[in-house]
């Protein structure tokens, strides 16, 4: 078994174990918004509906991953799909994030302890909250200049103006 923190480039290109496109193939296609490297801006979650999120003026449909420099669609249907595989996106980031906020929808759902432990071993603290709180936490962390990312599943309710 490989260490969960290894960078993709250190791995043999075997795809035998994958049922879906490789992360890099998937995320290249679904990249939505990218900040310029020198931009002082950070993303701010302005609101959400059951269909998606408004982040810094852009509507992102469905579950999304908000990274320090990009917003991507996150390929999970519900919190049950959150796995080490679907979190690999956050582990492979450069610069390395220090905290990941996961919004599991209307309620806080427990993620598997092994998964959280493996993220911690990669130096990433994981904060699991219901999505409305996760949005507020992410905004707070970025306003404090923390290197944070968020994985958010839309809740059923609607809120504009987090």
From TrEMBL:
Alphabetized Gene3D superfamilies for the sequence: MTH938-like (3.40.1230.10)
GO BP, one annotated term: mitochondrial respiratory chain complex I assembly
Domain of life: Eukaryota
Entry keyword Mitochondrion: yes
InterPro entries assigned: MTH938-like_sf, NDUF3, NDUFAF3/AAMDC
GO CC terms of this entry: mitochondrial inner membrane; nucleus
Keywords annotated in UniProt: Membrane, Mitochondrion, Mitochondrion inner membrane, Nucleus, Ubiquinone
Keyword Repeat: no
Protein role: Essential factor for the assembly of mitochondrial NADH:ubiquinone oxidoreductase complex (complex I).
Protein name per UniProt: NADH dehydrogenase [ubiquinone] 1 alpha subcomplex assembly factor 3
Organism: Hypotaenidia okinawae
